[in-house]
């Protein structure tokens, strides 16, 4: 066999190994109820759960607990599942993400802890509101664009 054939086979083998590894780590989007059911069946695979933070009458999020003076690597909050509208507790063993209170949607990646009856998040992904949503663009006589809030 030529050296180029051996190198080509090596590159193909590495590419196939990377694809198989990526597929094995991929997690799926589920509701909290489905994630809990998987955990009860013994499945420890990470899943994505999408939801929102519950808010009070003023629009402020409720149920956020973060005390960095006691434990800076423990962040707890309540979340409402987008699919089932069920509220559940999320524990993230990392510091609180910046702008958590401003987020429109929250995606948590992890698994349900059956002993503590909470979702144990490995990652938190936030969808924050766009600064361009709530205003109007205005063009003046010279063609300059301004943003009105």
From TrEMBL:
Record bears the keyword Zinc: no
One GO-annotated biological process of the protein: cytochrome complex assembly
Location of the protein in the cell: Membrane
Pfam families: CcmE (PF03100)
Signal peptide: none
Domain of life of the source: Bacteria
GO molecular function: heme binding
Keywords: Cytochrome c-type biogenesis, Heme, Iron, Membrane, Metal-binding
Cellular-component GO terms for this entry: plasma membrane
Keyword Metal-binding: yes
Protein name (record): Cytochrome c-type biogenesis protein CcmE
Species lineage: Bacteria, Pseudomonadati, Bacteroidota, Cytophagia, Cytophagales
